[in-house]
Amino acid sequence: MHDIKFIKKNPSTFDLSLKKRNLKPCSEIIIKIHNKYLDYLNEKQNYLEKKNSLSKLFSQQTEDLDKIKEQVHNLKIKIDELNKLSEEKLNEFNKIMLEIPNLISEKVPDGNSQEDNNIIKEVGKKKKYNFQPKNHLDLAENLNLLDYGQAIKISGSRFSIIKSDLAKLHRGLVNFLLDHNSIKFDYKECIVPELVNYKSLEGTGQLPKFEDDLFKTNFNDLYLIPTSEVPLTNLNRDSIINKKDLPIKYTTYTNCFRAEAGASGKDTKGLMREHQFGKVELVIISEPNESENELSKMTTCVEKILQDLSLPYRMVELCSGDIGFSSSYTVDFEIWMPGQNTFREVSSCSNCKDFQSRRMKMRVKNFDSGEIYFPHTLNGSSLAVGRLLIAILENYQNEDGTIEIPSVLHKYTNGLNIISNDDQKI
RNA sequence: GGAGAGAUGGCAGAGUGGUCGAAUGCACCGGUCUUGAAAACCGGCAAGGAUGCAAGUCCUUCCAGGGUUCGAAUCCCUGUCUCUCCGCCA
């Protein structure tokens, strides 16, 4: 949510940012609606003041009370009218405002699509194979570790059943990632609900605009989370944080659920794009002037994982056409996938500035000065576990189809260091 | 699923029609005292909005939404959530 006062002061800056996202300028109409709202509001407040002062006369005098009653009655009619009008305008205003994406940072490169993203750096050497590397799907199915027939029977497409040593690797990865984040990088580990209410999704920006991407349940109208950014960031919704408690850093592992409404035909099989996937998430609530710094600490945390796992990756700055709704600046991490001969996204780290904190009324108070302001919120994946699994399968494959397990994970896989065929056919 | 109770400031907790944005305690901030600290004492301390250069003035908010009334934290209705007991259950 944007600050209307900012828009009124800087309409052209605001419109320019929208233009970079290929959106139409709208400052003029927003300002117009808001001013109209203020007109109604001020008029209403004047009448309210009159009404209040008339009511107070009752405890002071006893004469002409009927006359006052009548005056109040007349005022109430006007107030009701103006109340309706101002509410209408405010609703109109909010409806527009909630669908406007965040302003993008000056650092964000111009561009229309993924193609225009800026590669910041490429790290790690791509392994050379003296055979044709397979993709994760062939590898895992050959090893009997992934079953799509069963997944389709139980739930349909875009689900999978992970089995045996691959399931153990998945579990080990989750523990490795959570330990990394909480012990080495001081994020507070949490377990959070995977069903959330409307307000929470509005707070982080998924609603009202992206309803189609979400799964809604018939229990209290709760939604399945598309990312644990939603519950983690909303932990401090509608509240005032003591400045001394910043920065607040959370990490969690959850399943994430996405309808993938606009992705038909893309990555239809395999762990790449599923309706349900596991993800470890990082969220930071930071002082406004510290958020850039915090983002770089966050990306360092993610990078360290990729380095520990010796996976070749690149760091990509998203362009104005590709950046998410709530973000002002986003850095993606992509791992080299030899079986697909391309880099694929495994993490996205965003600085949302005060966009989400304004939406969810998360504020910070400096108790020394009394000052109250909106903090910046950041979120990042560390990492999407399914995709990380793909990366390990493809990067650590041997010619015979077996998979080495990276050495940092051995203590998380109870010493298991190679995945070979699971003989059990069930 | 059945029965009952409740939702008030950062927290605890008074308040049952006007003088209530709301007692009191704790926490927090400032001060006195002290070599320093603690204790004690004194003072301050909700949020959002409008307007104004500012000081200030005004409006709104006691879970949410309706209603009664000149006037609602307080009375009535609806909804949501929480708690307790019983049943069921990982």
Range of helix content = 25-40%
Q: What is the CATH fold-level name of the largest domain?
A: BirA Bifunctional Protein, domain 2
CATH homologous superfamily designation of the largest domain? Bira Bifunctional Protein, Domain 2
By DSSP, the count of extended strands is: 17
The helix/strand order is HHHHEHEHEHEEHEHEEEHEEEHEEEHEE
Output the strand order for the largest sheet: 1-10-11-12-15-9-8-4
Write a short abstract of this structure.
The protein has 426 residues and is an alpha+beta fold. Helices cover 38% and strands 19% of the residues. It has twelve helices and 17 strands.
Structure description:
The protein has helices spanning 4-9, 11-20, 27-56, 65-98, 136-142, 148-154, 164-184, 198-204, 229-234, 291-308, 355-359, 385-395; strands spanning 118-123, 146-147, 161-162, 188-190, 195-196, 223-224, 240-242, 248-257, 276-286, 313-317, 329-337, 342-351, 363-365, 372-373, 376-384, 403-404, 418-419. Helices cover 38% and strands 19% of the residues. The longest helix is centred in the first third of the chain and has 34 residues, at 65-98. The strands form 5 sheets. Strands 1-10-11-12-15-9-8-4 form an 8-stranded mixed sheet. Strands 7-13-14 form a 3-stranded mixed sheet, with no helix packed on it. A two-stranded antiparallel ribbon has the order 2-3. It has 2 domains: 4-98, Orthogonal Bundle (Helix Hairpins), CATH 1.10.287; 114-419, Bira Bifunctional Protein, Domain 2 (BirA Bifunctional Protein, domain 2). The protein is built from 12 helices and 17 strands. The protein starts with a helix and ends in a 7-residue tail after the last strand. The model has no long low-confidence stretch (mean pLDDT 92). It has 426 residues and is α+β, with helices and mostly antiparallel strands. The protein binds one RNA strand of 90 nucleotides through residues 38, 41-42, 44-46, 48-49, 51-52, 54-59, 65-66, 68-73, 76, 220, 239-240, 242, 361, 363, 365, 367-368, 370, 372.
